[in-house]
Amino acid sequence: MSLVKAVTAAVAMGASMAMATPAVAAPPHPFVFVHDGFQPASQAKTAGAVTYDKSLVPTSASVFVAEARLGGKGMEKYHEGGEGHGHHWMHKGTFVFISVRGLAADHHFGVHVHTKPCGTKPDSSGPHYQNTKDPKQPSTNPKYANPHNEVWLDLTTKSNGKGWAKSWVKWNFRSGEARSVVIHKHATDTTSGKAGQAGARVACVNVPFK
Ligand SMILES: [Cu+2]
């Protein structure tokens, strides 16, 4: 419970910090926020987010992604004065949150953090980010392709096209190696030989994870 409260506080604090500081604030800054609309894939060079399938992710849709690094520099403020056992949330970890609006209704999307920025082609965003890299690529081994070694943010939209998901992992991204969030057509598979697969890439969001 204290972890959830700490994360909520961290995200709330980050939101106020984002308003008070320029987007290019120098590290260590434990928060990253992206809020974008989806543009046609042909605009990928300048777009924050692109769609490859307008029937599932129309250009009127929008996305919000937040990353909060816990246990790193900049979090000292939370090491005192908290309730309960503070050591729970002093461990190193990363919290990622996504919310979407305007997507196809009542649809389950597979969503993951990928290694490369979005491009004009769906495959531009590269493979999934893995904390421990599978020596065999593409990785479909559940030992590596799982929501503890990767960041999975599968979500199901409501009838109004809104949805959200969150992920908590016990590690931090390697700098510069996690660059996007990809939205896939189907739910993420967990079976051996297909683990991590979620069908076609229907949209992509550039996120400069730290
Ligand atoms: Cu993916």
Automatic annotation (TrEMBL):
- Gene3D superfamilies from the UniProt entry: Superoxide dismutase, copper/zinc binding domain (2.60.40.200)
- What keywords were assigned to this record? Signal
Q: Where is this region: Disordered?
A: 116-146
Please verify whether the record's keywords include Zinc: no
Superoxide dismutase copper/zinc binding domain span: 96-206
GO terms for MF? metal ion binding
Pfam families with a match to the protein in the record: Sod_Cu (PF00080)
Q: Name one GO biological process term.
A: superoxide metabolic process
Q: Where is the signal peptide?
A: 1-25
Q: Which protein family is named in the record?
A: Belongs to the Cu-Zn superoxide dismutase family.
Q: What is this protein called?
A: Superoxide dismutase copper/zinc binding domain-containing protein
This chain's source organism reads Streptomyces violaceusniger
